[in-house]
């Protein structure tokens, strides 16, 4: 009979998420994960199978706790006409708050897309699915904001807004002002 688990899995995954988000998968050392989670290597491997298993759990928590709550108003039925503007305003504010993880580290999945682990097919699929989810949500927001505009025009605007979000996430670690500027550009487009 196996020993009962003596730790809170959600707390462990959230602690590991911070390490992966700040450092990236490759640079997140097992000792750093041990320190953050309070678990030793064997407990991490027993509970998650590997460092990669812990990373996969952290990515799911990131999507559920960070990404999807921000997108929720864009997925409502119906979507409020101002929901997409509120999304960009909230994201802009979050990226402008230096000292907080989102401002200092950007997006876990955008960062992952440029890392060696992105060569893994499952990781590639997760990043692509995230981008598609973001694009679909922003598309709903653009449709609600500009219902009278031509479908092709709304589609182009949603694609551009998605690209500006990804750009902001990619830039925030190295050029926070440009990251915020990308979101400001989206807000200008959404006010037109």
TrEMBL record:
Transmembrane feature ranges: none
DNA-binding region: 29-48
Keywords associated with the record: DNA-binding, Transcription, Transcription regulation
Residue ranges constituting the HTH tetR-type domain according to the UniProt record: 6-66
Protein name: TetR family transcriptional regulator
Organism: Isoptericola halotolerans
């Amino acid at each position: 009979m196996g020993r009962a688990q003596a730790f809170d899995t959600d707390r462990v995954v959230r602690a590991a998420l911070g390490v992966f988000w700040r450092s990236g998968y490759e640079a997140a050392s097992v000792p750093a994960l041990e320190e953050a989670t309070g678990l030793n290597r064997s407990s991490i491997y027993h509970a998650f199978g590997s460092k990669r298993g812990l990373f996969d759990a952290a990515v799911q928590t990131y999507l559920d706790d960070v990404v999807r709550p921000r997108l929720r108003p864009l997925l409502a039925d119906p979507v409020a006409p101002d929901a997409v503007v509120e999304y960009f305003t909230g994201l802009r504010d979050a990226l402008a708050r230096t000292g907080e993880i989102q401002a200092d580290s950007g997006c876990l999945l955008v960062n992952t897309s440029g890392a060696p682990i992105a060569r893994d097919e499952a990781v590639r699929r997760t990043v692509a699915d995230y981008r598609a989810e973001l694009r679909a949500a922003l598309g709903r927001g653009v449709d609600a904001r500009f219902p009278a505009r031509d479908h092709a025009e709304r589609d182009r605007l949603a694609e551009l807004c998605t690209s500006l979000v990804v750009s902001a996430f990619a830039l925030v670690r190295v050029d926070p002002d440009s990251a915020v500027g990308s979101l400001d550009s989206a807000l200008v487009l959404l006010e037109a």
